TrEMBL record:
Organism of provenance: Lysinibacillus odysseyi 34hs-1 = NBRC 100172
Stretches of the chain forming a coiled coil according to its record: none
Superkingdom per UniProt: Bacteria
Protein name per UniProt: DSBA oxidoreductase
Ranges of residues in domain DSBA-like thioredoxin: 3-204
Listed GO MF terms: oxidoreductase activity
Length: 234
């Protein structure tokens, strides 16, 4: 089964939705038969590359609210995040242009390091307040998950993978994605946003049943005496 996820690294509900999906997959019994592909989505590509405005200031301008009102709004999001084990720190978050981060994600995908890369960037942004729009920060975070610095610099110093990022965004537009996170199960079922946890589990079950998947056996008890490869434990 394939699950495609459109998300952005500065979207608070994308990290929450990521955790919900991971939990549903782990508990489904189909974990080894599910492939998850993260696709690019830019919430605000007009954000200047060098802008690192405090998130409360940015939200106040965007929604025409006082800073106190934005703090109350983000406090509610932080509560949602905590429910899935994430300790959001809005006090240290800054605005960021994520175009370069998405291009590097395509390199990480080629090198089979996309899961670690995506997790590291979201953790860096929401929990640590890292400026993930800055090349120096991206280089350091990418190296932390095993990406070669020379290859990372090559991507950042060029327009490499820009076409793939744009293709993801175009595909999202074609299937009607207006916001993220957006999850597509086996190119048939879609979930928009960080919905209640049971919905993820139900959708996986339905898609798996239609695909004819069989759940993995869950072992119970301790390992007992057994024979394998022509030998028996005595």
């Amino acid at each position: 089964m394939k699950i495609e996820v459109w998300s952005d690294y500065v979207c608070p509900f994308c990290y929450i939705g990521k955790r919900q999906l991971e939990k549903a997959i782990k508990e489904s019994g189909y974990e080894e038969q599910i492939e998850v592909e993260y696709k690019s989505f830019l919430l605000d590509p007009s954000t200047p590359i060098d802008m690192e405005e405090p998130i409360f200031t940015a939200l106040s301008k965007k929604y025409n609210l006082s800073e106190e009102e934005t703090k109350k709004m983000t406090a509610n999001v932080a509560v949602r995040a905590k429910e899935v084990g994430l300790e959001y720190n809005f006090d240290v978050m800054k605005t960021a242009n994520t175009t370069a981060a998405h291009r590097l994600a395509k390199l990480a995908n080629e090198l089979e390091k996309a899961p670690a890369y995506n997790e590291r960037l979201m953790k860096a942004y929401f929990l640590e307040g890292e400026a993930i729009g800055r090349p120096d920060v991206l280089k350091r975070l990418a190296e932390e998950v095993g990406l070669d610095r020379a290859k990372v610099e090559e991507v950042l110093d060029s327009r490499q993978f820009e076409d793939i990022v744009e293709a993801d965004i175009y595909e999202a537009q074609q299937i009607g994605v207006r916001g993220v996170p957006f999850f597509v199960f086996n190119n048939k079922y879609g979930i928009s946003g960080a919905q209640p946890q049971p919905l993820f589990a139900q959708t996986i079950e339905q898609a798996a049943a239609e695909a004819g998947l069989r759940k993995s056996i869950q072992l119970v008890g301790e390992g007992g005496a057994a024979c394998s490869d022509g030998e028996c434990e005595i």
